[in-house]
Each structure stands twice: as C-alpha cells, then as structure tokens.
C-alpha cells in the first residue's frame, strides 16, 4: 500500500468520484493555471497514463490557448470570480485527432471541507454529444433532421434521386428548409464534387437578374465596366439552385426555359453562345399552378422544372421535428461559438407548443436569442423570446394536474393571481426554478407561466 493521501488530495478524490458517476472529469488549477489535481477518469478519455502525464502542466497543453490563453475568456472570467458553463473545446486523442468536449470552469475555494490553498480553480469536462463534434463522413452523409413521418418521406424522395439528374422543384412555406434539401440532393448526387451555386431570385431587382444568371460583357449596359461570369457558367458541371423561382420575371423565364431545353445561352450584350451542363433545382413558396393561371409564370417552364416535385410541410405540421431540430441547431451554434448549450424539459415544451409561423428559420432565430440571454449551460423557458412564451402552453405534468384538480375541489385552496412584485419575489426566492415556484404558490406550472406572461415577468425583470 502507498502512503495515505493528503487531506486535500482525499477531498479532491471525493469530489472526483461524485463527478465521475456523472461521466465528468475534474481538474483543479493553481494560480498559474497549472493542473494540480486531475481525475483518473481522464485516462478513460485519452488513454492510460494521461492523468499522470498532464499533472503539473499548464492547462493550455490540454485544452489549448483559445480559451485559456493570456487573453482567453476563461482567464478573464476566473479572475473576476465568475463561472462559465458549457463551452466547447478539443482534447487531443493521442492519435493526432481531436475529441470534442464541454468545459465548465469556476473559482474553487474549498475541496470538500479540506482547503488546498494552491488549488484555486475547478475545471469540469464532459464528452460532447456526437452531433456537436467535427463533421464526419463524405458528402453523402445526410444533413436532414428527421423526426416525423412527413420528413421521413422527404428523406426517401431525396435518396431516390441519388443516381438521377432530373430537375427538382421543392415547394413549401418560407423558412421550412428548402435550401437544405437542395444542398442534400446535390451532396448525394454524382455532381457532388462540382459546384453548388445558389441564386435567390426574389432578392435581386429584375434589371439585374438576367445579368446575374447569364452574365454580361463590358458595355452591355450602363455600369457594365467589365465582363461578368453568370451563375450558370459558375455552376457548369454542378448544380444551380434557383430559390424563389416563382419571382422570376417573364422575360427571364423565357431565357431560362431555353437553357434547360438546349443547355446554351448568350451573355447579356454578347452574340457568342455558351454551352453548359447544369442540373437545375428550383424552390418556391408560391403555388406555381395559380401563378400560371394568373399568367405570371410560364406553363412550359413549370413542367420543365417540376419533373420531380418535393413538398416540405410546415413545422407546425410536424411537431415531432421540433426537438431534434432544436438540438441540431444548438449543436451547429456550438460549433460556431464554442459554447455548448442544452434545453431544459420546460423550455423544450415551450418550443413544441409554439406554432412557428416562420418555421425552421424562426426556430433558429429563437435559439440564437436564447443562447445570447442564457447565463448557464441550460436554456430555461425565461430565456426564450417573448412571442414564444406568449403563445405556447407547456404540457401539463402530474403535479400540474394534481394542483388544478385540488383547486377545483376546494375553492379555499384556489389562489388568486398574485401581484407582479409577489410573483417576482417568489421566482427569485426559488432561483427561477419553475417547478419549485409553482409548488410554493400552490398553482400548476401552466398557471405560473400564464401569470408570468400576463405580467411580463422575465429573468431580466
């Protein structure tokens, strides 16, 4: 047997064991940001001997300079005695690769009651969710988020196009993800090594659309100071995605029809014919059959574009997709910002109860807002935009049902709505934990949410 552990080492071992039961790795740093204590669980992540190898070394050797460098955000936070939760970092895996991990840091004042004066900062590492990691696999791996039968059907349609070059017309409301489906079709096709070029037909004025698509030569019109290569030429051999194709003016529709039929065109102001090999994927939120009836869209062009139609349902028609989409969007945000966040069950219920008129695009914006507002690693309902809280009604729990049932049985137990100050005080006293606050006020959580919405009570109040 070796010598007995020092009191501070034994205390850290106790802390380490508690975190290890949750799959977390603990480290304690000294004032010079050297790793004074390291959980043996690090060996499970990085291989045998990793904990001993890193003990006494600067934390930057393990987690890099981006977070722990002299000007890094973690040093500034710890110097101000602040905590930072759920930031993303990379661990070396010993084979030249990197392993994604979630990092939480906090000032450390006591190890289980036995103070180690040289250990001043606590680091907690959690292996990141697989979807938060680096992109893996070739372009054929799907980027579609599928949780509902409706999106499973869309996925099957996309997969059926793997060996086809037919024109595809994607329909659906604005924000449902038509561009994502278009990119997925291209990524799975034989053209995946060639360019994917996108044009938003609704974002450009009519006078510029023809030049944007087909290019122009110098002097073709006022302001044409040099030759310009159009999107068709840029997409040669690959895929051209025409988003909001229903907004094309009729004269451009005629030229587009010719390109599809003959695979050739002339730049604006030029007589030279250019031949291209381009696959067309178009998308629109409009009903193009009605546009044809109104003589705003060419019927022959519609048939050329709509060889293989795919309709994407709105998000309110596929509520099962909200949760996987939210997790996917948070993972993508983590890859961009380095901060890994999760949704509390209550926040997820709020998201699932909202109708999402802006579809996936609105969901992404709501999560970006919540990620900015949230102070911890978990997004709470009060971190969500007010319009989501104002409309959505979270699902009732067993506690909610019991409280409401008992409230109906006895009017003496029914609570009148408290004043805003009383409600705010109750939330603050219970650290904004909705379940605890609802119990303290003897109301259901749905009632508590309604009171908060009516009185415009948020964590920022």
For the record, what CATH class of the largest domain applies?
Alpha Beta
Number of domains: 4
> Number of helical segments?
21
Q: What is the chains' assembly state?
A: single chain
Question: Can you tell me the residue ranges where pLDDT is under 50 for at least 5 consecutive residues?
Answer: 1-5, 130-141, 392-414
What is the residue-mean pLDDT, rounded to a whole number? 81
Which range best describes the helical content: under 10%, 10-25%, 25-40%, 40-55%, 55-70% or over 70%? 40-55%
In whole angstroms, the N-to-C terminal distance is 58 Å
Q: Could you tell me the radius of gyration in angstroms?
A: 29 Å
Name the CATH homologous superfamily of the largest domain: P-loop containing nucleotide triphosphate hydrolases
Strand content: 15-25%
**Strand line-up of the largest beta sheet:** 2-1-5-4-3
Secondary-structure content class: alpha/beta
The CATH topology of the largest domain corresponds to: Rossmann fold
CATH architecture of the largest domain, please?
Answer: 3-Layer(aba) Sandwich
Largest sheet: 5 strands, antiparallel
Shape estimate: globular
Tally of strands: 16
